From TrEMBL:
Gene behind the chain: ligA
Annotated SUPFAM superfamilies: BRCT domain, DNA ligase/mRNA capping enzyme, catalytic domain, Nucleic acid-binding proteins, RuvA domain 2-like
Pfam families, A to Z: BRCT, DNA_ligase_aden, DNA_ligase_ZBD, HHH_2, HHH_5, Nlig-Ia, OB_DNA_ligase
Entry function: DNA ligase that catalyzes the formation of phosphodiester linkages between 5'-phosphoryl and 3'-hydroxyl groups in double-stranded DNA using NAD as a coenzyme and as the energy source for the reaction. It is essential for DNA replication and repair of damaged DNA.
Catalytic activity: NAD(+) + (deoxyribonucleotide)n-3'-hydroxyl + 5'-phospho-(deoxyribonucleotide)m = (deoxyribonucleotide)n+m + AMP + beta-nicotinamide D-nucleotide
InterPro entries: BRCT_dom (IPR001357), BRCT_dom_sf (IPR036420), DisA/LigA_HHH (IPR041663), DNA_ligase (IPR001679), DNA_ligase_AS (IPR018239), DNA_ligase_CS (IPR033136), DNAligase_adenylation (IPR013839), DNAligase_N (IPR013840)
Gene3D superfamilies: 5' to 3' exonuclease, C-terminal subdomain (1.10.150.20), 6.20.10.30, BRCT domain (3.40.50.10190), DNA ligase/mRNA capping enzyme (3.30.470.30), Helix hairpin bin (1.10.287.610), Nucleic acid-binding proteins (2.40.50.140)
Protein name: DNA ligase
């Protein structure tokens, strides 16, 4: 028998944790620290382990992923999940508007961003998520509930006990997609062509614990039978979805005219690369549901909505050569060098060809004309070869028989890997790439040591491993061409400052295979020092939530290497911090969310972020309604207008510092 008190505690913990999930993942505005959150979760896990009968499918503990499954059940959709007709230019969208007007007269539209993800239907019964179904063929889809439960912005339980089906998009954020693809390339796996494929692949993994690690996110935009909930328009539906704690895209716009829609589309064609997710157009929807019904559907798509795609960002150019990049783990990536060509405002000179299988698959040769595209408006990629333009003079691309950097042997680590690697453990290219990571913003944040300087330091034999950075002297740096006395002084002071790096950043800098920022953060929270982490057994590592078998083994192996031991010893001797200092120093800004625009006098972006976080505040890159203050520096950007639109308070840098002082004083008085 479970005591009533425990039952109540479990229920309370679940409500609290789900609320904090919502604050963090949907609103991006947490009200407690990560440690406090961990404590709640730990307690819930403990109670569920002790009283397994209390485990329910909507428990937040399920978000880390349950047992692996055998396959996916096919489920019929409650109403077909159809797609949209596409339009590509302003004339076509005006045609659509004319057709709408002929049937229902003048209308308002809702313009939404068309998220490049995977569509999903979510069924809730009495407020509980019971099924998540992919689109499939539109009539039947796959039941991917166990995987979708790991998507933190999707509520497992609604704030009201509603029975409802909502639809929207699941996607992989760009930053995570890039990190994930890089990881794949380093592991010798074929990278995903775009976040949509990565999302679809992830949603079909058989192990939900793996899915949980991939940071999928969501936006919901559709309610099945919305009239049942008293909703009359799409705009109301979006508001209703927000009230139910779904994540709704903040950029949707209610437009009074088709001209406003076109303006929205023009603006986002330019601005889309600034988003954290990929969008491939605008979805234009008639706002009024009664009018939507009047317009009805064709067999394929609704007549009340249309996708207004962004212009295809493509160009044609010639491959004039192939160069090779050698990565941190020695993976050799072939890169196509182009005759420079303009694409959406930038000059493109090269694009990664990922690996030699990719080249074979697309039959890419030197001298070929190729069509290139900016995937998601950002990363240049070869779409296909224009074979009609071949002259017969084109040369095939071959795997280099020696490392293009050090001349070392080249090979595959195992047959399943598509990647070729430089097998020389002392290849300077590997060290250079590793040093670039080591000094990057995410790691030790040492300004002034760009790739060129790093390359010279390695070539001069002044830096033979990452720890050597801390032993550089003024005389060493003076040998490097292009460094003046002022720059040298700056670099040395940056290096000095970097010694007080946080443990999590130091871990990122070590470049342990499979350990990125997220994992580093988890590790720094669980282990109080680098020594403690270095001494952890595989079993200890597996006990840490969010660390899977591969990562545990990779961490363990890394710390067992004699070279690692040497590096850590050297870092320690140099006085580099190795202790966890994740705790908040002073809790004076807790509950407040800040954003920054323009250049500040006293802080870099990274510094102000750390400063705010060290005072218990929350820092975000983008302004939203949830932002409490926007700190405005010199030459502010568009965030300022956004803040004004949302009624977010603004502060100058001095006013911000004053606010901190006042709060510190107040806190001091309270404690007296
Ligand atoms: S509405 C019946 N809104 O685009 C209308 N779709 O080609 C349902 N999509 O399958 C679609 N963002 O996966 C709608 N804001 C948005 C969307 C969106 C992305 C996807 C969706 C759909 C496809 C249509």
């Amino acid at each position: 028998m479970v005591p009533e008190k425990i039952r109540e505690e479990v229920e309370r913990l679940r409500r609290e944790i789900e609320y904090h999930n919502y604050r963090y993942y949907v609103l991006a505005s947490p009200v407690i620290t990560d440690e406090e959150y961990d404590k709640l979760m730990q307690r819930l896990i403990e109670l569920e382990e002790k009283y397994p009968e209390l485990r329910t499918p909507d428990s937040p503990t399920q978000r880390v992923g349950g047992q692996p499954i055998e396959g996916f059940e096919t489920v019929e959709h409650s109403e077909p999940m159809l797609s949209l007709d596409n339009t590509y230019n302003e004339a076509e969208i005006l045609n659509f508007h004319e057709r709408v007007r002929k049937t229902v007269g003048d209308v308002e539209y809702v313009a939404e961003l068309k998220i490049d993800g995977v569509s999903i239907a979510l069924r809730y019964e009495n407020g509980l998520l019971v099924r998540a179904i992919t689109r499939g063929d539109g009539i039947k889809g796959d039941d991917v509930t166990a995987n979708v439960k790991t998507v933190k912005s999707i509520p497992l339980r609604l704030p009201e006990p509603l029975t409802i089906e909502v639809r929207g998009e699941i996607f992989m954020p760009v930053s995570y997609f890039e990190e994930y693809n890089q990881q794949r390339e380093e592991e010798g796996l074929t990278p995903f062509a775009n976040p949509r494929n990565a999302t679809a692949g992830t949603l079909h993994l058989l192990d939900p614990a793996e899915v949980a690690k991939r940071n999928l996110d969501s936006f919901m935009y559709y309610i099945v039978k919305p009239q049942q909930y008293g909703l009359k328009t799409q705009w109301e539906a979006l508001e209703f979805l927000k009230k139910l704690h779904f994540k709704v895209n903040p950029h949707s716009k209610l437009c009074k005219s088709i001209e406003e829609v076109i303006e929205y589309w023009r603006n986002w064609s330019k601005e889309r690369s600034k988003l954290e997710y990929w969008v491939d157009g605008v979805v234009v929807k008639v706002n009024d549901f009664a009018k939507q019904n009047e317009l009805g559907w064709t067999a394929k798509s609704p007549r009340w909505a249309i996708a207004f795609k962004f212009p295809a960002q493509q160009a044609r150019t010639k491959i004039i050569g192939i160069t090779y990049q050698v990565g941190r783990t020695g993976v050799i990536t072939p890169v196509a060098e182009f005759e420079p060509v303009e694409l959406e405002g930038t000059i493109i000179k090269r694009a990664s060809l990922h690996n030699f299988d990719y080249i074979k698959e697309k039959d890419i040769r030197i001298g070929d004309y190729v069509l290139i595209e900016k995937a998601g408006g950002i990363i240049p990629q070869v779409v296909h070869v224009v074979k009609d333009l071949r002259t017969g003079q084109e040369q095939p691309v071959t795997v280099p028989d020696e490392c293009p950097v050090c001349g070392g042997p080249v090979g595959k680590e195992s047959k399943e890997y598509v990647a070729y690697k430089c097998l020389n453990p002392h290849c300077p290219a590997k060290l250079k790439r590793h040093l670039e990571v080591f000094v990057s913003r995410q790691a030790l944040d040492i300004q002034g040591l760009g790739p060129k300087i790093i390359s010279k330091l390695v070539d001069a034999g002044l830096v033979k491993d990452i720890a050597d950075i801390f032993y550089l002297t003024i005389f060493d740096l003076a040998q490097i061409s292009g460094l003046g006395p002022k720059m040298i002084a700056n670099i040395l002071s940056e290096i000095e400052r970097a010694k007080s790096v946080s443990l999590e950043r130091l871990i990122v800098g070590l470049g342990i295979p499979g350990v990125g920022e997220r994992t580093a953060k988890i590790l720094a929270r669980k282990f109080r020092s680098l020594e403690e982490l270095a001494n952890a057994s595989i079993a200890d590592l597996l006990l840490v939530e969010g660390i899977g078998e591969d990562t545990a083994k990779s961490i363990y192996d890394y710390f067992k290497l004699p070279k690692t031991k040497e590096i850590i010893e050297k870092l320690k001797k140099a006085g580099v911090n190795m202790k966890s200092n994740i705790e908040v120093k002073e809790d004076v800004l807790s509950g407040l969310t800040f954003c920054v625009t323009g250049t500040l006098k006293n802080f870099s972006r990274e510094e102000i972020k750390r400063y705010i976080e060290s005072l218990g505040g929350h820092y975000t890159d983008n302004v939203s309604r949830k932002t409490d203050y926007l700190i405005v520096g010199e030459n502010p950007g568009s965030k300022l207008q956004k803040a004004q639109k949302f009624g977010v308070k603004t502060l100058t840098e001095d006013e911000f510092l004053q606010l901190v002082e006042e709060r510190k004083k107040k806190k001091g008085e309270q404690q007296k």
